[in-house]
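Hi all, posting the design record for the shared folder.

TITLE: backbone redesign
STEP: 1 of 1
STRUCTURE INPUT:
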């Protein structure tokens, strides 16, 4: 879809002198020259650390970057005008696979490609007109940064939080590297969407599971419910039971197989038993007559991916082994099946089958004529057979001494019973696995480890950091890290015995680099430690973190783990990296996601050139609520550009009050204060779109006033001044230009955010009835939209009410908004 080319000249009001090309670059240069946005720690204002997720160095700033960065800059500027010392840094997430793929395809060195991209992105970022303090820029692929990434790895290793282990890992055949579980979505690679395979490899892991319980606590942070839920589900803590089933098969030493279940209440409903085809006991449990069928089934299962095996919509199949386990609670012999939907790496690789209360088991039972026995009966159950599994609550039947208990009561009762008999008991399990950080790639931070035939795994001593990436490697599409063939890198001396040794050639997952970059912004040039401790103490934790929700169970989870881990090592003293989190939505065009293949990608550079960065900024803020995103429309941005023109013309107008009237004066002041109030409240809630609507209404009023000249010069000047300050965080360049043109002292960005007059800003007043124990004792005149807190404050401050409640205990208050407050005392 070709976008309509809109040139400023074609839409500009002929009388308007607003030309963003003349002013934007000028102010960007002046702000930079004056170090206007550089922040220091020795500042009397309270600190506010406003962070936006740093961009990956793809080479071009697209509209998604702008949507992440422009509104967050507006908010950071708003906090600055509210009197905070605001740190709003920018940097680059610079390691990663695209650079290496480029090298394989073109021979250009990843470092060269990345740094060139950064150069271009810096230029583009400057055009946004943000308050980035460039002196704090952080680039993760530079040795001065990755030295400390390696250092953190060593600290985690010393603390036992990094370990090497063999595991079945996710292997992306296209990216030719392993992936963490968090990087596999529906069985596919997060980056290239290829189906992921399983491989058994020796890899480095971080012990994130040690923090599973703490990661489930969100009481210190103000994050969107959606992200908390995603993390909670990912960690997947489940209470259940570990249950031993008896084995009595001649020739097998094992006398039991254990299963984990979240439904121990259904134990009496077990009518079959399922093991993973890969379970080591399967060959021994397969009787001669079932051998052929079982072996064929196993071969088939191994050809499928984990996703194919467990997807909800694939038909569930299984095959009987010919052997039985014993359900100890009722002594029943239960037939053993293997089925591909049971995976060897989860739980014990075996599960109990309860067809009456699990739909998957129900389907299996129907297919293989296995009995279906109800044990949790729905309260209105008529004794008839079920048409589908009953997975909800109910009361126990067919469960011996436990009949009549509720489902929850049964869970505890049966677990206690199992414990008393030594057959198992209550347990907790987690879905989350340890974080696999080895990558068989070149363009990442080296893992500072050495392998010695004599001493085993030896960490590189701190004084020898950083382990540098060798620049002279060959990039070939072999699927092996080029580091493997780089002898000058691989061959080294053992730090312990001095003998010949080999370096680890895998590099770290780039999510390791992004797990601590927010610490580095506090002192990016510091070279004695990852950060200057005093500066870190001043800035951390991050007060507001903004970025995409797609990072919920990757970056946002890893960073929380990382901070908790280094807290326990004694490196930091806080628990959470990001106090408040906000996720912006995405910008689409004509309802469709933008993509190069569809040809509907909006190029911000074009619009900046044609209409200015300020128009792009305000349009992105206006296009929809920030958390929801919006639909890009060329008419929309033209509309915003026209509005900026109107402001320009109003502020530049020669104003003389010709027909000043008391009513107009009052109205102008009332709207101004209401606008200040609305803008402030909307800013706090990231409601930039409605804030701009309020500013537009105010602009319309000023448009009428300027025609008639109906207010005094003093009131007019005050209104224009406030309009400029309110628009300053959004249209940063235009506001500055007009501000200085009107003779105000440079810079508008050092002005304080205006305050509103409570009386003038409130719409209407209402009478609030105050009751004590249900009796009317007082009537107060309050603003119509008074909050519960303010209503209570007004009531408790009232002399008459004070008299009634003095010396009494307030049991509770009941508030009916704008109408009534009842105080219950004793
Ligand atoms: Zn991939
Ligand atoms: Zn050695």
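Okay, here is what came back for every position:
SEQUENCE:
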């Amino acid at each position: 879809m070709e976008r309509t080319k809109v040139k400023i000249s074609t839409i500009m009001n002929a009388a308007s002198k607003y030309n963003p090309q003349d002013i934007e670059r000028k102010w960007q240069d002046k702000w930079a020259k004056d170090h206007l946005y550089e922040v220091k720690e020795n500042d009397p204002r309270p600190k506010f650390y406003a962070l936006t997720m740093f961009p990956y160095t793809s080479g071009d700033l697209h509209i998604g970057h702008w949507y992440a960065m422009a509104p967050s800059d507006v908010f950071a500027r708003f906090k600055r005008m509210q009197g905070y010392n605001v740190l709003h840094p920018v940097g680059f997430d610079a390691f990663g696979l695209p650079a290496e793929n480029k090298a394989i395809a073109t021979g250009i060195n990843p470092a060269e490609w990345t740094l060139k991209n950064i150069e271009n992105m810096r230029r583009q970022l400057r055009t946004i007109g943000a308050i980035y303090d460039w002196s704090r820029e952080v680039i993760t692929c530079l040795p001065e940064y990755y030295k400390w990434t390696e250092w953190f790895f060593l600290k985690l290793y010393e603390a036992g939080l990094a370990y090497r282990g063999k595991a079945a890992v996710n292997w992306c055949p296209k990216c030719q590297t392993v992936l963490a579980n968090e990087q596999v979505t529906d069985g596919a690679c997060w980056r290239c969407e290829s189906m992921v395979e399983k491989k058994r490899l020796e890899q480095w892991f971080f012990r994130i599971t040690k923090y599973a319980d703490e990661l489930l606590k969100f009481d210190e942070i103000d994050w969107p419910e959606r992200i908390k839920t995603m993390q909670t589900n990912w960690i997947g803590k489940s209470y259940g039971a570990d249950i031993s089933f008896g084995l009595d098969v001649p020739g097998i030493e094992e006398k039991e197989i254990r299963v984990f279940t979240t439904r121990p209440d259904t134990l009496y409903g077990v009518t079959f038993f399922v093991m993973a085809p890969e379970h080591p006991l399967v060959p021994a449990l397969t009787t001669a007559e079932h051998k052929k069928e079982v072996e064929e089934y196993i071969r088939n299962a191994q050809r499928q991916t984990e996703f194919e095996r467990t997807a909800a919509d694939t038909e569930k199949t299984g095959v009987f082994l010919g052997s039985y386990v014993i359900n100890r609670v009722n002594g029943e012999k239960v037939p053993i099946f293997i089925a591909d939907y049971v995976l060897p790496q989860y739980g014990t690789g075996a599960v109990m089958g309860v067809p009456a209360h699990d739909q998957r088991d129900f389907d299996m039972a129907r297919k293989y004529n296995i009995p279906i026995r109800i044990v949790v009966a729905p309260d209105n159950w008529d004794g008839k057979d079920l048409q589908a599994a009953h997975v909800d609550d109910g009361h126990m039947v067919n469960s011996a001494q436990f009949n009549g208990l509720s489902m929850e009561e049964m869970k505890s009762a049966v677990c206690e019973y199992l414990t008393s008999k030594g057959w198992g008991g209550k347990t907790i399990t987690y879905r989350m696995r340890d974080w696999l950080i080895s990558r068989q790639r070149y363009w990442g931070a080296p893992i500072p480890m050495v392998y010695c035939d004599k001493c085993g795994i030896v960490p590189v001593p701190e004084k020898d950091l950083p382990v540098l990436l060798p620049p002279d490697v060959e990039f070939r599409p072999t699927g092996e890290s080029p580091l493997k063939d780089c002898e000058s890198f691989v061959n080294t001396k053992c730090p312990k015995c001095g003998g010949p040794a080999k370096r680890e050639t895998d590099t770290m997952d780039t999510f390791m680099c992004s797990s601590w970059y927010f610490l580095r912004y506090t002192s990016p040039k510091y070279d004695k430690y990852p950060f200057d401790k005093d500066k870190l103490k001043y800035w951390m934790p991050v007060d507001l973190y903004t970025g995409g929700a797609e990072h919920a169970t990757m970056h946002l989870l890893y960073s929380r783990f990382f901070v908790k881990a280094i807290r326990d090592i004694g490196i930091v003293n806080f628990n959470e990296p990001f106090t408040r989190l906000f996720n912006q939505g995405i910008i689409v065009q004509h309802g469709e996601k933008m993509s190069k293949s569809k040809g509907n990608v909006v190029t911000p550079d074009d619009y900046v050139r044609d209409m200015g960065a300020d128009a792009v900024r305000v349009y992105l803020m206006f296009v929809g609520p920030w958390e929801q995103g919006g639909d890009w429309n060329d008419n929309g941005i033209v509309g915003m550009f026209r509005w900026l023109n109107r402001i320009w013309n109003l502020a530049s107008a020669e104003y003389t009050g010709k027909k000043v009237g008391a009513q107009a004066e009052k109205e102008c002041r009332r709207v101004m204060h209401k606008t200040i109030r609305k803008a402030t409240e909307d800013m706090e809630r990231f409601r930039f779109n409605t804030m701009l609507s309020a500013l537009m209404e105010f602009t319309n009023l000023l448009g009428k006033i300027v025609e008639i000249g109906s207010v005094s010069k003093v009131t007019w000047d005050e209104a224009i001044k406030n309009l400029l300050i309110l628009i300053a965080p959004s249209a940063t360049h235009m506001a500055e230009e007009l501000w200085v043109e009107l003779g105000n002292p440079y810079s508008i960005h050092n002005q304080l955010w205006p305050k509103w007059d409570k009386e003038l800003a409130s719409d209407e007043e209402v009478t609030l009835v105050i009751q004590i124990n249900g009796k009317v004792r007082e009537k107060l005149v309050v603003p119509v939209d008074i909050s519960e807190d303010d209503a209570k404050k007004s009531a408790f401050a009232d002399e008459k009410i004070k008299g009634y409640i003095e010396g009494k205990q307030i049991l509770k208050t009941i508030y009916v908004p704008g109408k009534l407050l009842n105080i219950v005392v004793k």
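COMMENT: Residues 662-684 form the longest helix (23 residues).
Let me know if anyone wants the other runs.
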